[in-house]
Amino acid sequence: MSRSDLLGTIMREHRDGLVSYAEKMLGDHGLAEDIVQETIIRAWRNIDRLLGMEGSVRGWLFTVTRHLVIDWVRKPHARREVVGVSYSDPVLGADSTEAVHHALVVRPLLRQLSPEHRAVLVHIYLCDRSIQETAGILGVPAGTVKSRQHNALRKLRNVARPEAA
Question: Hey, which of 17, 49, 93, 147 would disulfide with 88, CB 3.0 to 4.6 Å?
Answer without folding.
Answer: 93
